[in-house]
Design brief:
By secondary structure, the protein is of the alpha/beta class. The chain has two domains: 10-147 and 293-317, NAD(P)-binding Rossmann-like Domain (Rossmann fold), CATH 3.40.50.720; 152-291, Dihydrodipicolinate Reductase, domain 2 (2-Layer Sandwich). It has helices at 36-41, 56-68, 84-87, 101-108, 125-138, 152-162, 180-195, 294-308, 318-335; strands spanning 10-15, 46-52, 75-78, 91-94, 114-117, 141-144, 169-177, 198-207, 217-224, 229-235, 244-249, 252-257, 262-270, 278-287. It has an eight-stranded mixed β-sheet with strand order 8-9-10-7-11-12-13-14, with helices on one face. It has a six-stranded parallel β-sheet with strand order 3-2-1-4-5-6, sandwiched between helices. Helix 5 (125-138) runs antiparallel to helix 9. The longest helix has 18 residues, at 318-335. The N and C termini lie far apart (49 Å). The relative contact order is 0.16. The model has no long low-confidence stretch (mean pLDDT 94).
């Protein structure tokens, strides 16, 4: 396939204009862009936006937000995603509830060049596998919005782990709130991204912490292909939100905090308190907290893939989405038996 000129412009349709689709762009505390809409509304590579939602009140909020944010690009507001066959956008963003992901993706895939799908990709493995397969059949790029995969700090940590900076990985621990499908799926994906395939779920147990309707919180013990262990722990979102990962190696550890924006590297050094021991000592901090937009980087990645003709994302592919939801569903199943 011939590469597309780097100055080509693309059109974008966003189906689902809720929090991640558009509304969080109005949160003054968040690094901008903070949503799919924000990633494209001022992007010079985007020629036109199609904002789609079947709720009239949500569409009105989108109109008001676009005006408040000073968007000058052409925008068409649409109430039914079936209009995708008419508008034929280059990029389709599926930002609705997971139950509707398959329906929208399957309908839209013949008319687009790339699809960004919110996590989880689907609510069952049959739908997830079919969605990945149909995108491959049509030659459509499928990118999962596992948003932390678009933070430079995560790839720096992955490179340090793979190059042996902290030695052989012994085990990992991850702490999350607000449901295994909602937030825990991000954590499962990050564990896979940093330490490779998870081959076994040793145990999984439900907790009583609060979460969105239809979701559950779980604690679990995992085994990776490399023989290391993973410990998945949930906490109470009503107390505070948290998304932390600790990777323990034979020579040190990496601690990822602040929802994935900050990494602290600690090396094993001679203990200052007790003779004959080593202790972990902080040696480096990587902080992306105040300057990096996950969604801006996601949008840039998709545009770069389209420019180059790449059909499978090397950062967050449909296969990554399938593997993560398969593991989450297995965790839920194990907790019920």
């Amino acid at each position: 396939m011939t590469n597309i000129e780097k100055n080509s412009e693309y059109s974008v349709a966003i189906v689902g204009l809720g929090r991640i689709g558009l509304q969080m762009e109005l949160d003054e505390k968040r690094v901008k862009p903070a949503t799919h809409f924000g990633s494209y509304c001022h992007n010079p590579r985007i020629s036109k936006l199609f904002l789609i939602d079947n709720d009239s009140e949500t569409l009105d909020k989108a109109r008001n937000a676009a005006e408040k944010l000073g968007v000058t690009k052409p925008i068409e507001f649409i109430s039914d995603y079936s209009e995708l066959h008419r508008i034929k956008p280059d990029i389709l963003v599926v930002a609705t509830n997971p139950e509707s992901h398959r329906e929208i993706l399957v309908f839209g895939v013949p008319f687009v060049k790339a699809i960004i799908c919110e996590k989880p990709i689907a609510t069952n493995v049959v739908d997830a596998e079919y969605m990945v397969d149909i995108c491959e059949k049509y030659g459509v790029l499928l990118v999962m919005d596992y948003c932390r995969r678009f933070l430079p700090v995560i790839w720096q940590c992955k490179e340090m782990i793979e190059s042996g900076v902290i030695g052989e990985v012994r085990h990992m621990s991850g702490l999350y709130t607000a449901g295994i499908m909602n937030s825990g799926s991000h954590l499962i994906d990050m564990l896979r991204c940093l330490n490779g395939n998870i081959k076994k779920i040793n145990c999984s147990e439900k907790t009583g912490y609060s979460c969105p309707d239809g979701d559950v919180n779980l604690n679990a013990i995992l085994t990776f292909d490399n023989g290391s262990y993973g410990f998945l722990q949930s906490s109470e979102a009503k107390d505070y939100a948290i998304f932390d990962i600790n990777v323990y190696g034979s020579k040190g550890m990496i601690s990822i905090s602040n929802f994935g924006f900050v990494a602290t590297i600690k090396n094993a050094e001679t203990c200052k308190t007790f003779g004959g021991y080593k202790e972990l000592s902080e040696t480096k901090v990587i902080d992306n907290n105040s300057k990096v937009s996950m969604w801006g980087n996601l949008a840039s990645h998709v545009i770069e893939c389209l420019d180059s003709g790449l059909k499978i994302s090397d950062k967050s592919s449909g296969a990554d989405g399938f593997e993560s939801v398969k593991l989450v569903l297995e965790l839920i199943n194990r907790s019920e038996h």
